[in-house]
Design goal:
With 261 residues, the protein is α/β, with parallel strands linked by helices. Helix content is 43%, strand content 15%. It has 11 helices and 10 strands. The strands form 2 sheets. Strands 1-2-3-5-7-10 form a 6-stranded mixed beta sheet, with helices on both faces. A 4-stranded mixed beta sheet has the order 4-6-8-9. α5 (146-154) crosses α6 (156-165) and α9 runs antiparallel to α10. The longest helix is centred in the N-terminal third of the chain and has 16 residues, at 34-49. The protein binds octanoyl-coenzyme A. Octanoyl-coenzyme A (CO8) binds at residues 28-29, 31, 67-72, 88, 91, 108, 110-112, 134-135, 138, 142-144. One of its GO terms (biological process) is fatty acid beta-oxidation. It is an enzyme of class 4 (lyase). Belongs to the enoyl-CoA hydratase/isomerase family.
Length: 261
């Protein structure tokens, strides 16, 4: 991860074990054109495959996380062309990344930008962030999870209000309703997100990834099946070095030395 130069994104490793991916299409407020999504998928898959990386931070600029799918690219598409290319199907690839992703959202997270943030595992918002699903104003509806993930995050009636009116909501509202886990000063947001990612990356990765997979399972299945999934993953961790080490370190009052095995 991190060696390749991209056109629409920047990649770096600000501290060990943390991959930082920055959307970088400033003239279009990070509108998510297809080439950008392809680069993003490539960078996230590279981070997922890199054993030295434990967690990922995805951010944009202070003005805009991402102002949505690229409207200029979309405007001439037809039903035949979107069906033939299965338009936006590849956006969902981000939800298949095994390592935790923190979306650090400053500025606009609108339409596909809000949906992209919601494909991450944790959202931290800069105090001036503006979220919204304004697709209705363009004659369409959210197409990359907005009606599903926003509804699960903030509740059905509130989601209906924002998706049907296209109104934006603030960072503080996002936090009050459980969409954003924390709100930071805009200038501190990325540093704080990298710190949290470093903390997550310091733990045993098998446990971290089992935790992520189990939490996500709660959106897929009923409670009984979800509890069963959780228990199987929990039991499986007793076969790992990191479980022995984590519990031994606690008993011996020392720091654990996790090996991701
Ligand atoms: N697509 C393409 N270009 C954009 C987009 C966008 N979504 N958003 C902003 N831009 C461009 C503007 O056209 C402008 O370019 P130019 O300088 O060449 O005219 C530049 O970015 C700066 O934008 P503004 O001048 O408009 O900046 P303001 O600060 O005045 O306004 C706003 C900022 C409020 C964010 C405004 O730009 C805006 O309303 N943008 C559109 C927001 C929107 O409707 N997003 C939803 C898009 S639809 C969508 O995401 C569907 C998702 C479906 C699933 C995914 C499908 C791929």
């Amino acid at each position: 991860f991190g060696d390749k130069k991209y056109e629409h994104i920047l990649t770096s490793t600000p501290v060990p074990k943390v991959a930082l991916v920055t959307l970088n299409r400033p003239k279009a407020l990070n509108a998510l054109c297809t080439p950008l999504i392809k680069e993003l998928n490539e960078a996230l898959q590279a981070a997922d495959a890199d054993p030295t990386i434990g967690a990922i931070v995805l951010t944009g600029s202070e003005k805009s996380f991402a102002a949505g799918a690229d409207i200029k690219e979309m405007k001439d598409k037809t039903v035949t062309s979107v069906l033939n290319e299965n338009f936006i199907e590849e956006w969902g690839n981000m939800a298949n990344i095994k390592k935790p992703i923190i979306a650090a959202v400053n500025g606009f997270a609108l339409g596909g930008g809000c949906e992209l943030a919601m494909m991450a595992d944790i959202i931290y918002a800069g105090a001036k962030a503006k979220f919204g699903q304004p697709e209705i104003k363009l004659g369409v509806i959210p197409g990359a999870g907005g009606t599903q993930r926003l509804t699960r995050a903030i509740g059905l009636y509130r989601a209906n209000h924002y998706i049907l009116t296209g109104e934006m909501f603030t960072a503080q509202q996002a936090a009050d309703w459980g969409l954003a886990a924390k709100v930071y000063e805009p200038a501190q947001l990325v540093d704080e997100s990298v710190k949290a990612a470093a903390q997550i990356a310091s733990y045993g990765q098998l446990a971290v990834q089992a935790a992520k997979a189990s939490v996500h399972q709660s959106a897929e299945v009923g409670l009984r099946a979800g509890l069963e999934f959780e228990r199987v993953r929990f039991h499986g961790l007793f076969g790992t070095h990191d479980q022995k080490e984590g519990m031994a370190a606690f008993a011996e009052k020392r720091e654990p030395n996790f090996k991701n095995e």
